[in-house]
């Protein structure tokens, strides 16, 4: 998978790192907080015979740059800039396969530019990360505040704890944890400023009007038109790593696998 040339979404925003492989209708991959595009390697390899797969490092993650100082900006502005940069790397009418925080960006992109998106595959995505009186599926606000405080003191330790949390309950927890860790080693760690900005986004974001536990996924599916909900027992937060063989048939069916690979438009 070789890096593809990238162009900036805006004159004041550096280009994001993009990698493309395969041929056929385009599938675009957006990863989650503290990760990078390497987490999708196995899934992309399994799909590359029939689709063109395009993976992007989020700003400040992997090999994508981060504009220092922007982490203190309004979270909505950060989200809008991020979505602009990501959309700029997408071919027309691509299907988005997005995980966790990447899934929230995908929801924003679908609301902002629905004509650009052929379909959404949201993995471990919630429209609202924090719990509220009318949203029982979220995390306690104190948990996120503790993460933000720990991130300032020891960002590598915080990321390590977060990776362990991602695989909790997974049948193949050790192997999935190793895959996530290897992705960071191969592609590069996320910048602390980008991680702080991501946590601020998770604190502020509520996308229910626009449209990660199983309850949140089911509730999100109920909000989206023509949505299908798939829950894989003991898959943890990264089923594309822990249960790839279980996920692939469902994903291919949802995508409508082409009978033969063909060049993307």
Order of helices and strands: EEEHEHEHEHHHHHHH
Number of strands: 6
Give the neighbour order of strands across the main sheet: 1-2-4-3-5-6
**What average pLDDT do the residues reach?**
86
Radius of gyration (CA) equals 17 Å
Tell me what portion of residues adopts beta-strand conformation. Answer: 5-15%
Distance between the termini: 20 Å
Specify the biggest β-sheet. Answer: 6 strands, mixed
- Overall shape: it is globular
Brief write-up:
This protein has helices spanning 41-47, 75-88, 101-112, 141-153, 155-167, 173-187, 192-204, 214-223, 239-242, 244-255, and strands at residues 2-4, 18-22, 26-30, 52-56, 94-99, 117-123.
Word description of this protein:
This protein is of the alpha/beta class and 265 residues long. Helices cover 43% and strands 12% of the residues. The chain has ten helices and six strands. It has helices at residues 41-47, 75-88, 101-112, 141-153, 155-167, 173-187, 192-204, 214-223, 239-242, 244-255, and strands at 2-4, 18-22, 26-30, 52-56, 94-99, 117-123. Strands 1-2-4-3-5-6 form a six-stranded mixed sheet, with helices on both faces. Helix 2 (75-88) crosses helix 3 (101-112), helix 2 crosses helix 7 and helix 4 (141-153) packs antiparallel against helix 7. The longest helix has 15 residues, at 173-187. The protein is globular, with a radius of gyration of 17 Å. It starts with a strand and ends in a 10-residue tail after the last helix. Mean pLDDT is 86; it is low at 1-11 and 260-265.
């Amino acid at each position: 998978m070789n890096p593809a040339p990238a162009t900036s979404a805006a004159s004041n925003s550096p280009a994001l790192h993009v990698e493309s492989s395969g041929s056929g209708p385009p599938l675009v991959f957006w990863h989650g907080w503290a990760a990078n595009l390497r987490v999708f390697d196995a899934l992309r390899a399994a799909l590359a015979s029939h689709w063109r797969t395009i993976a992007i490092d989020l700003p400040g993650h992997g090999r994508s740059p981060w504009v220092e100082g922007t982490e203190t900006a309004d979270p909505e502005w950060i989200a809008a800039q991020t979505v602009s940069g990501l959309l700029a790397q997408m071919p027309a009418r691509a299907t988005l396969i997005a995980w966790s925080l990447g899934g929230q960006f995908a929801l924003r992109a679908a609301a902002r530019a629905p004509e650009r998106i052929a379909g959404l595959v949201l993995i471990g995505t919630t429209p609202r990360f924090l719990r509220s009186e009318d949203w029982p599926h979220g995390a306690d606000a104190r948990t996120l505040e503790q993460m933000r405080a720990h991130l300032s003191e020891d960002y590598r330790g915080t990321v390590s704890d977060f990776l362990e949390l991602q695989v909790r309950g997974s049948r193949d927890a050790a192997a999935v944890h190793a895959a996530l860790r290897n992705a960071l080693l191969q592609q590069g760690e996320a910048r602390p400023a980008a991680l702080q900005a991501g946590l601020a986004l998770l604190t502020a974001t509520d996308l229910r009007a626009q449209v990660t536990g199983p309850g949140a996924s089911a509730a999100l599916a109920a909000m989206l038109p023509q949505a299908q909900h798939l829950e894989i027992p003991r898959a943890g937060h990264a089923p594309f790593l822990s249960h790839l063989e279980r996920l692939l048939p469902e994903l291919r069916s949802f995508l409508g696998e082409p009978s033969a690979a063909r060049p993307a438009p």
